[in-house]
Amino acid sequence: MTTLATRRQAAPGGSTPSRPARSGASSVGRPGFAWALPATIFFALFALVPLAAVAVLSFTSWSGLGDPEFVGLENWKTLIADPVMAKSLWLSLLFIVLGVVTQTPLSILLGVWAAGNQRNRAVLSAIYFIPLLLSSAAISVLWRALLDPNFGIPGQLSWLFGDGNLLGSQSGAIGVLIFVGMWQFTPFHTLIYQGAAKGIPNVLYQAASIDGAGMVRQFFSITLPQLRNTAITSIILMVVGGLTTFETVLILTNGGPGTDTTITAFYMYQEAFQSFDFGVGSAIALVLVVVATLISLVVVKVSGYDKMNSSLEGL
Amino acid sequence: MSRSLAGTAVMMLGLTLAGCGGGGGDASSRPENELHLAVYGDASNKVEQAMVDKFNETSDVKVVLDTIPGADYQTKLQTIIDTDSAPDIFFNWGGGSIANFVKADLLMPLDDFIEEDPQLKDAFLPSVFETAVIDDKSYGIPMRGTQPVMLFNNSEVLEQAGIDAPPATWDELLADVEKLKAAGVTPIALGGADQWPTQMWFQYVFDRVAGEDLFQSALDGDTDVWDSEESREALGKLRELIDAGAFGTNFDSVKFTDGGSPTLLSSGRAGFELMGSWAYATHLDADPEFAENVLGYSEFPAIEGGEGDPDNLAGNTNNFYSVHKDTRYPEEAGEFLKLMYSDEFVQEQIAIGNLPTTTNTEEFLGEASNPEYAKYQFDLVKEAPHFQLSWDQAYPPEATVTIHTAVAQFFSGQIDEDGFIKAMQSL
Fold first, then answer.
1. Of A239, A129, A247, A249, nearest in space to A186 by CA
2. Assembly ipTM
3. Residue among B290, B336, B260 at smallest CA distance from B35
């Protein structure tokens, strides 16, 4: 009897799993499906229906004039044979990896630092935050002007930049886009890490100090592990952001030089709204949806995020 | 639940597609007593507004001017042209920019209007009027001004480099490039990041080497001409110029639209720039002193042994007004178009620096802000045996990305002659 009671208490939600509650009283506080209805309807209207429409459009040829014409797998065959499409996917992955690699360490360091209580910390944090308040378009126009090879920064620092053809070479253009992305989004991720770092219980550090751990050791043995879930959240956001990067590419490089920075999201825009080929554009959009879903699943699986273990276990 | 949800989704999808492809309604679904006029939004809108106001004074059907921000114009137009909110009259570039609309049977041939009032055709320069003729029917009446592409120069820089006059031939241009390099400046400014300025070089060199027929054949569907001897010769000439270092090494990072390449010219760091006639207004805006005293201009050089007439021009012949087939008030639309050759229209356009293409424009050139420049340009257009509409506007809009990418890649050396030919043959 005692064991049974204990087991019952341990069961989640307080009710016995083997005997579902039938009385009205015990279902209080457990929302029924009706609660999710508004959200479900909105999701269906504004996400699923357009997605279905895009899926249908991807089997048609449509320039925006007249009726879409059904062409079967034609667009998909075009895409599979299209070297620019393959290149754009590689570029997108490269953008994601470079974005995560450059932004994560910096945001962690800045975030942990900003969670402390140094002098002028609040003022500096506010300054770091400014790039996030500007629109991507404004940021891109700003950097475009700053990077003019003759009259911008490269023209002044020719010992460093040579002829200043940053946006005219593939490595230069990718470098610029990654740098601008870092400049724009690091503040946001810093903010997330700052919040998480503030939430780490002080007792952990006190105990570590007593054991004689220094600053560096404390950072690697306490701070970093405690930030694991935050890091996963932040990285997923970076992945999604990297996949959908668009305005900066449009304004800074227009996909160039040639097709050297034509990432998938930009290629989709180019096909649909510049070449007026909504069929191929829709097919690319579907590829993006699939790729984004796959990447998210992989990140969640690999990181153990689906289990949602608390980082405070054992406290 | 999930089944009914799926049902809803399918129904919504049906509605969405019906909405997308429903096609323009008939005239009765359009607003009463209103004629909508869609134009490219920029500084020229004030003249258009003045014409609209003038028309509305005497007409019961009022014209409503809808200005659409420039960079989005073509996209927006294509999105609405086949719906009930399509404009009755709209701005375009003639040629390929309206070819798809004609094919989709959305435009009204203007020949009946012209028969009633021959001035609608005769009052305009023929080389310009022809740009909006498709399958022997007229679909556009010229509006705004003509914009031929010319070779601009910084006369002070040329003088310092020992160049007395702008180059009249290709060989002189190559010689000037050497002199300018020796003088330590970039010989030719190029906004390669915008891509269309790069394309201007192709338009002229192909026209000079092969004549206007090569491009016209390609446009008509005979893509073999891109692989012809003349085409390869034209590409060879361009390659020669690029390899001579005429454009420097960082042109792919320079734009015209943000002032990059014009500033190279005006600050004396480049000798030439090939640009549309609007370059004068651009410089006048940024540096009036330079525009009035230093800026020089000349025709694109002749190419020895080439088949094209050295007086041929390339650029924007003009902009046009076309009329939607479903307009509720065709008569009033026809009446409105007549304003495009009125003296008042010509004077107002000249006052803001545009060069209208009516035959009587010449009488009013003295009123231009720079009469000498206006006269030079007008004579170029009047005497040009052929005026080649820019490639990216002669082709339908879907070709633009391919053309722009190909010209940019050829200039930066990412593709060679064969790569360029293959790209153009894919159109």
1. A129
2. 0.81
3. B336
Write down the pLDDT at residue A27: 54
Q: Is a pLDDT exceeding 80 seen at residue B25?
A: no
Nearest residue of B to residue A273, measured between CA atoms: B75
Question: What are the tokens at B373?
Answer: 């420049």
Residue B280, both tokens? 């004068």
User: How close is the nearest chain A Cα to the Cα of B292, in Å?
Assistant: 23
Length of chain A: 315
- φ/ψ of residue B170, rounded to 5: -60, -45
Answer whether B248 sits within 8 Å of A40, measured CB to CB.
no
Longest CA pairwise span in chain B (Å): 84
What is the tens place of the pLDDT at every residue in A59-82?
Answer: 999 888 888 899 999 999 999 999
Angle between helices B45-58 and B343-351 (to 10 degrees): 150
pLDDT band at B12 (very low <50, low <70, confident <90, very high): very low
| Total-model pTM | 0.84
Task: Report the gap between the CA of A52 and the closest CA in chain B (Å).
Answer: 7
Percent of chain B with pLDDT over 70: 93
* C-alpha distance from A273 to closest chain B C-alpha (Å): 6
Q: How far is B398 from chain A (nearest CA, A)?
A: 4
Return the number of CB contacts < 8 Å for A and B: 123
Yes or no, beta carbons of A151 and B263 under 8 Å apart: yes
Nearest to B70 by CA among B47, B107, B45: B45
Residue of A nearest to B21 (CA): A67
As a whole number, mean pLDDT of residues B21-38 equals 71
What tokens were used for B177? 């490039």
Would the pLDDT of B23 be above 50? no
Q: Give the nearest partner residue to A149 out of B195, B253, B415, using CB atoms.
A: B253
Residue A65 to residue B81, Cβ atoms within 8 A: yes
Q: Which residue in A237, A229, A203 sits closest to A309, CA to CA?
A: A229
Of the candidates B20, B401, B412, the beta carbon closest to that of A257 is on B412
Q: If you search the block for the tokens 């690699």, which residue do you land on?
A: A101
Q: Which of B69, B3, B81 is nearest to B36 (CA)?
A: B81
Hey, are the CB atoms on B409 and A65 less than 8 Å from each other? no
Categorize the per-residue pLDDT at A6 as very low, low, confident or very high, splitting at 50, 70 and 90: very low
Q: Does A47 touch chain B (CB under 8 A)?
A: no
Residue of chain A whose Cα is closest to the Cα of B23: A66
* pLDDT averaged over every residue in chain B: 90
Burial label, B268 (beta-carbon count in 10 A; 0-12, 13-18, 19+): middle
* Residue A275 contacts B where some CB pair is shorter than 8 Å: yes
Contacts of A88 in chain B (CB under 8 A): none
DSSP states along chain A? -HHHHHHHHHSGGGS-TTS---STGGGTTS--GGGGHHHHHHHIIIIIHHHHHHHHHTTEE--SSS--EE-TTHHHHHHHH-HHHHHHHHHHHHHHHHHHHHHHHHHHHHHHHHTS--TTHHHHHHHHHHHHHS-HHHHHHHHHHHT-TTTSHHHH-HHHHTT--GGGSHHHHHHHHHHHHHHHHHHHHHHHHHHHHHTS-HHHHHHHHHTT--HHHHIIIIIHHHTHHHHHHHHHHHHHHHHT--HHHHHHTTT-STTTT--HHHHHHIIIIIS--HHHHHHHHHHHHHHHHHHHHHHHHHHTGGGT--TTTT-
Note whether A48 contacts B: Cβ–Cβ < 8 A: yes
Percent of chain B clearing pLDDT 90 (strictly above): 74
Among B5, B20, B254, the residue with its CB nearest the CB of A68 is B20
User: Least CB-CB distance to B23: which of A44, A53, A66?
Assistant: A66
